[in-house]
């Protein structure tokens, strides 16, 4: 191996470790659920980390046949809150892995590595 050349065995070990971490994060996200709420919990929406709806809970106090718009706004707000929570969870689980794609400063997968 020439000086300044990357150690291929080390690179392969890092890649294998990152692949295992990625698979673990994906498995955790596959089963994770998050809940968003609006109106101080009067409406709650639960979704998976992949944004698949699981449940909607509506407190009977907020059901007013003469004011459907408020209920609609609360459901939309709870859904937005759930989406934000799912995105935060995805970033928490996957973000460190994405930043680790630099592979020890080799520039693999980092910004500006594609020349054109």
From TrEMBL:
The keyword 4Fe-4S does not apply. Signal peptide: none annotated. It is found in: Cytoplasm, Nucleoid. One of its GO terms (molecular function) is DNA binding. Its main location: cytoplasm. One of its GO terms (cellular component) is cytosol. Binds to DNA and alters its conformation. May be involved in regulation of gene expression, nucleoid organization and DNA protection. Belongs to the YbaB/EbfC family. This is Nucleoid-associated protein EV378_3029.
